[in-house]
Amino acid sequence: MSTLTIAIIVVFVLGYMLIAMESLTKINKAAIALLMFVFCWTLYMFDPAPFVQLMHPGFQGTGDQVVSFVNSLITEHLGDTATTLFFLMGAMTIVEIVDQNGGFNWVKDVMQSKTKRSLLWKIAFMTFFLSAILDNLTTSIVMVMILRKLVQDKKDRLIYASLVIISANSGGAFSPIGDVTTIMLWNAGMVTAAGVISEIFIPSLISMLIPAFLLQMSLKGKIQYDDLSNDLTGDREILEFTGIQRKLIFGIGVGGLCFVPLFHYLTDLPPFAGILLVLGVLWTVTELFYRGLHRKRGDDIQFSKRVSSLLSRIDMSTILFFLGILMAVACLEEVGVLKELGSGLNTAFNKNHYAVTGIIGVLSSIVDNVPLVAGSMGMYPVEAMGDMAVDGIFWQLLAYCAGVGGSMLIVGSAAGVVVMGLEKITFGWYMKRITWIAFVGYIAGILSYWIIRTFILVSPL
Predict the structure, then answer these.
(1) Which residues of 258-289 are buried (b: 16+ CB within 10 A; e: fewer)?
(2) In the predicted model, is pLDDT for residue 394 greater than 60?
(3) Is it the case that residue 162 has pLDDT exceeding 90?
(4) I need a surface site. Which of 1, 213, 290, 445 has the fewest CB within 10 A?
(5) CA 77, CA 360: separation in Å to the nearest integer?
């Protein structure tokens, strides 16, 4: 391992430590993530040729050609990162539009519970199954907006929000469209929809049930009526549109979010294109509604809930944090750290696929699970028979571990990052109170999968 590679790893580790100590340093995590990104790539550019030869042996250029090639690599990684960021921004804006127009108020009646623990179970199951239909990122945004209407106490809401992260990641793992990594494995033909649903569902459910049971111990007492009606002022303020118009906005927004996976399947366009399509349609419809309001009230009337105004509410620090983290991880990928890590695991555990995928899942809570899964797909070819065959133990465990493992740290998944930004959960608080709970559920899910594949479904369906 070269000196530059070690230096890049040191910068990444130090950056992660500072992010973890945000509550102590009082430095915004987005600033640290951006510095990680720039410093890692700056070190890379000191001598990029060896890294290019290692990771891209087909490239034969020298001198300025190497610089141009590396710049194209950075642009490519930035493009991959931007698809996630635009998906996040689009989904957050759509949910904000629906929320500001009363779209989620009905949930207060549907989800109303007498006790805090009963509400926790309703939140857990709704998040789990909704994540399988939508995706864990969109589901997390929707559920946090619902939680804000149901729970006024900040300390309680942090517990509920943490369960949303765990449930969203668990629900996304057993669905072929519920998580980015599962989509990657499904599209590559390494798992089938029927196989991953039938054999990963129970482990995913267990990885949600056990943390929910443990977290309910932190919640005692009943929910007061005031807790369920804290949004009434907002309800009165949002009546800019008629009831039919608000229902239409809700239908387009939520229906559009459900349509995104189908749009991706039909067009092969990235999911962010579907999100932007839904945002564009919803924006156009609301502008037509406001056009009618201007005719009635005059052109000089200003409406604070127009989409152009709501865009300013997007938490840009979360977006920039996500940018910095993903681009820093991309640098680790380009220096070969992730690839060496994967092959080293395979050697160290003597091809014990439960151990290898289990470690990959733990690592996915530290670095982004997408490059980890992509690296695994490149290192381990699909075989005709055995654990590495289509729907084999390795690939199904990889889908489970990469998805559920991200719950162990709040920055380990897209769901965690967005909830972190929306509810201002600190890295340290989550690590102290939630990490061990998510880990217990994670291990229990792996154990249940071992029992299923050893004693019940010896061969895949």
Answers:
(1) ebbbebbeeeeebbbbbbbbbbeebbebbeeb
(2) yes
(3) yes
(4) 1
(5) 21
Q: Can you tell me the distance from the alpha carbon of 77 to that of 75, in angstroms, rounded to the nearest whole number?
A: 5
Contact at 8 Å (CB) between 327 and 37?
yes
The closest alpha carbon to 437, from 457, 400, 398, 410, belongs to 410
What's the rounded Cα separation, in Å, for the pair 244 and 248?
A: 6
Which tens digits make up the pLDDT trace of 102-145?
A: 776 666 667 777 788 888 999 999 999 888 876 777 788 888 88
CA nearest to 371, candidates 94, 233, 180, 133: 180
Higher pLDDT, 449 or 180: 449
Distance, CA of 247 to chain centre: 28
Integer Cα distance of 16 and 367 in angstroms: 10
Backbone angles phi, psi at 182, to 5 degrees: -65, -40
pLDDT bracket for residue 442 (50, 70, 90):
very high
Q: Measured over all CA atoms, what is the biggest interatomic distance in the chain, rounded to whole angstroms? A: 74
Q: DSSP letter string over 1-57?
A: --HHHHHHHHHHHHHHHHHHTHHHH---HHHHHHHHHHHHHHHHHHS-HHHHHHH-T
Q: Is 222 helix (H, G, I), strand (E, B) or coil?
A: strand
Beta-carbon contacts of 438 under 8 Å, excluding residues fewer than 6 positions away, are 166, 211, 407, 408
Phi, psi of 222 (to 5 degrees): -105, 160
Per-residue model confidence as pLDDT tens digits over 247-279: 888 888 888 877 877 887 788 888 788 889 999
H/E stretch holding 235: helix 232-237
**What phi and psi, each to the nearest 5 degrees, are found at residue 365?**
-85, -15
